[in-house]
Amino acid sequence: MLGTLLGIRWLIGALLLALTFKAAVAPSFSWIAKEGIGAVQMAGATVATVIAAVGVPFLLVALAGGLAEFAERIGSKAVEQRLIILLQRTYLDRRRGESQARDVTQILYGSELAKKGFEVIYKDAWRLTAEIGAIILWQLSIGPDWLPALLLSILPALLIVWLVGPAIQRLSRLVLTTHRVLAARTRRLHKERFERSQERLFRSVMHLEVLRWLADRGMGAVLWASFGLFVGVSLALDLGLIPSSGDVATASSFAVNLALLAKPLGDIGKVYTKWREAMPAVIPVYGRA
C-alpha cells in the first residue's frame, strides 16, 4: 500500500497542504464570534460599530476558507483518479489467475471501494488530526477553563463507532461477493439466480446504509448529549469542572468550537466505517483474492 501512495506522493503533498490550511482557518470563526459579542456588549454599540469591528476579518476568513475548500476539492479529485488507475494496474499485475467476473468486478467496483481505504491514510487521518488539534488550540487560547468539558464530551462519541465497525466490514464483503456473482450470471439461463442475487444485494446495501448512518450521524448527537450530561453532573455534584463564572463571549466562543468539533467527530465515524468497508476490496489487490 505504501508503494502505491508513493507513486502519487506529489499530488498527496499538495492535497495535505490544502487540508492543513483549511483546518487552520476554520476555528477563526470562534474568535470572530467572541469579538462580535464583545463589540455588541460595548456601551453605545450599533450595527455599524459591530460591522466595523468584525466585518473585514469575517470577509477575509470566509475568502480564505473558500479558497481552501476549492483547493481541497480539486486536489482530492486528482488524487482519487490517479489512485484508482494504480489500484487497477496493481490488481491485474498481482492477481492469481484470470476470472472475468472477478476481474471485472474488482476493476469497476472493487477499485472504487479500495480507494476509500487509502483515503483514510493519505487524507482523512491527517485532516481530522489537524482540524481537532486546531480547535483544541483555539479553545486553549480563548477559554482554557472549558477545555475539560470539551475533551470529556468527545470520549463517548468516539466509542460509538466501534460498535458497528465489524458488521460494516462483513456486509461490505458480502456486497463485493454479490457483485462478482452478478457479473458471472448475466446469461439468460441464469436469470432466476441473477434476480435472487440482486435482491440479496439490495438488502445488504440497505443494511449497510443504516449502519453507516449510525456511525456518521450518531457521533454528533452523542457529543451534544455527552456535553449536556457532563454539565448537569458537574453542576449537580459541584465538581468544579465547568467554570462557575465567565463572560458570555467566552461561553459563546466555546459553543462555536463545540459545533465545529461536531463535524470532525462525525467524520471520525465516517472514516472508521470507510476503512472497514474498504478492506474486503483492498485484500484482493495486495493479497489473496
TrEMBL record:
Its subcellular locations are: Cell membrane
Which is a Gene Ontology cellular component entry for this protein? plasma membrane
GO MF terms here are:
ATP binding
Protein name as annotated: Uncharacterized protein
Looking at the keywords, is Membrane present? Answer: yes
The scientific name of the source species is Azospirillum thiophilum
Q: How does it sit in the membrane?
A: Multi-pass membrane protein
Supply the InterPro entries for this chain: ABC1_TM_sf
Q: Where are the transmembrane segments?
A: 46-68, 146-164, 221-242
Q: Which Gene3D superfamilies match?
A: ABC transporter type 1, transmembrane domain
Q: Which UniProt keywords apply?
A: Membrane, Transmembrane, Transmembrane helix
